[in-house]
């Protein structure tokens, strides 16, 4: 089978660390070029993504790994040229943009894949299976990390459309919406905005769900300096306790680790992408992005000290 010729648009750290190795390790794909503002990346490398699309011959697919704000314009042109698209999370800056891309891809007959890499961790599928048909007594998400470690010098995360603490927090939402046996809705919360930022650096949230009979909450914080904590703790109505730790990589049931298997988050993303292309199907999941939008609509706002990245 001839490999699918794919380009990476927005070649930065996540593309270098995750997307490039996953593509090179998958025989279904051939990496045909890249673009970035610095012109660094797999050859041929361009500083202008328009030039990439105009120059690289036989291009069939693209992975868009830019910040979310410019994604819509890039994706719209790619779809118009018949390219299959993989979108790094979050897929777009707004729900309206991703819905329009869904419509355009369907009309063109191309694959659109909104990726949520945390859903492809080893413990997530096992947790979903264990929670199927269960009532939820409680859930608490703790997603704490250091913005200076993960986004050094990247001021865009605190600009409009940069998502702030929801940039990592949306990973938690993607796992929660994947494993819970019912939809999740934001009911209230508090968002902490640095005095010099347009996006929050922390969030304390409460949720409701028709599948739950008790409290559902999340604590997101970008100010933790002594390591990361990415956990989801769930208690079920029949007294079981599930702990997803390390972003979903490991699952514990009543304190005992549940064996899980995964080829890796990003390798599994590209395995899924190839399968979707083969079937001329799309996978567009907007629930994590909806929870971010709903949080910004219903939560209270507080001002905290300035932040520098």
Automatic annotation (TrEMBL):
What single Pfam family name could you report for this chain, choosing any that match?
A: GFO_IDH_MocA
List, alphabetically, the Gene3D superfamilies matched. Dihydrodipicolinate Reductase, domain 2, NAD(P)-binding Rossmann-like Domain
Query: Record's InterPro entries?
Result: Gfo/Idh/MocA-like_OxRdtase_N, Gfo/Idh/MocA_Oxidoreductases, NAD(P)-bd_dom_sf
- Please list the residue ranges annotated as the Gfo/Idh/MocA-like oxidoreductase N-terminal domain: 4-113
Can you name this protein? Answer: Galactose 1-dehydrogenase
């Amino acid at each position: 089978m001839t490999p699918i010729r794919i380009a990476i648009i927005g070649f930065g750290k996540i593309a270098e660390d995750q997307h490039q190795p996953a593509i090179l390790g998958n025989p279904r794909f051939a990496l045909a070029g890249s673009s970035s503002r610095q012109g660094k990346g797999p050859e041929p490398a361009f500083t202008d993504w328009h030039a990439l699309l105009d120059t690289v011959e036989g291009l069939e697919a693209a992975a868009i790994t830019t910040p979310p704000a410019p994604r819509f314009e890039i994706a719209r042109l790619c779809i118009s040229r018949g390219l299959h698209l993989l979108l790094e999370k979050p897929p777009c800056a707004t729900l309206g943009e991703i819905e329009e891309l869904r419509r355009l891809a369907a009309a063109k007959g191309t694959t659109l894949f909104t990726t949520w890499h945390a859903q492809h961790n080893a413990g997530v599928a096992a947790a979903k299976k264990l929670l199927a048909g269960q009532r939820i007594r409680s859930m608490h998400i703790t997603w704490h990390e250091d913005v200076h470690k993960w986004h050094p010098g990247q001021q865009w995360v605190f600009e409009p459309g940069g998502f702030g603490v929801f940039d990592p927090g949306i990973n938690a939402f993607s796992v929660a919406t994947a494993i819970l046996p019912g939809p999740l809705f934001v009911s209230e919360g508090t968002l902490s905005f640095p005095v010099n930022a347009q996006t929050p650096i922390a969030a304390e949230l409460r949720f409701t769900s028709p599948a739950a009979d008790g409290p559902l909450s999340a604590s997101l914080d970008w100010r933790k300096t002594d390591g990361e904590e990415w956990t989801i703790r769930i208690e079920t109505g029949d007294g079981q306790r599930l702990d997803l730790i390390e972003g979903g990589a490991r699952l514990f049931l009543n304190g005992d680790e549940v064996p899980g298997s995964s080829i890796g988050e990003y390798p599994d993303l590209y395995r899924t992408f190839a399968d979707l292309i083969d079937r001329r199907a799309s996978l567009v999941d907007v629930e994590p992005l909806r929870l971010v939008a709903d949080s910004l609509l219903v939560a209270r706002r507080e001002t905290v000290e300035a932040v520098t990245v």
